[in-house]
Target: DUF6924 domain-containing protein
Amino acid sequence: MGFSMPRSNWPLLTGRTRPLKMKEWGDLAIMDPDAGTQPHGRGLLAAGKDWLHIDAGSALENPVVTLYAGADPGTESGWEEVEEATMVSTTGFLALCDSGYEPVRKENLATAGTGPYLIRVHASDRSTDGKRPRFLIQIIPGDRTGAEDDLAAPMIEEAAGPLLIRTSFTQPDQWARLLEALAGSSEHYESITVIDNPLYAGFTADRLQQRIGRDEEGWPHSTLLLIADEQTLASTERPLLAVNNLPDEDDSPFRITLAAAGSLVVNMELGNTSFGDWAPGADADGVYRKKHY
Model:
């Protein structure tokens, strides 16, 4: 980007709040301006490696932004919108930037260095004519347990269809049998890309979703994840954890047997069903077993 700023003498925010009046209007970002990334996305929040994009709305008034960095102070009431997302800082530096990716204040918001951060954004009057949009942005260090693994694990950007991701590496024989069953199944599994990388060992669904690549508009390359975890490989039915990775949808994950997963994949790809149509069909033990192509 051709932009560099000294960092060694930038003070840290430690739980202080700062009201900010922007000189230039446009979307906002919490990012490292030297990381070479360009924030983008749909909805109020969209996150990627070293950046989080905030849709500032359509109001023409300059916004007032209050920043908080430190331990979680909790959600404030009285705001029209409150959303949160997790991002990972690989450089240990984050700043509030304008729509041109230029810092508007020189505080380092990454108070805990490299690792995950929970960004909670409160907003009001984003698209109200004649009113000044207001934002409260809280930057909260996330759980550092597994943070080094998150930083080491690569982004999954090469696949554009459903993913089968292995997260358990203690049962190699069972994994080999799962792959054999997949290879011997019908053409309904052909669109699945297998991700077999020990760097994802023990990853939860949320952590995997943070590693899925996105296009310039913030749309994930893969919208359906099938996770082969320890529970999957411990059962002869191989109940995969199915995860909806579509933006702005909050369907809960559910288990589905490998034998039935092809039915899920083909009907989702054809648009015959939505993800939320499937979980109610699970048996009493929480596993979906029906096949209907």
Q: What stands out?
A: The chain has five helices and 15 strands.
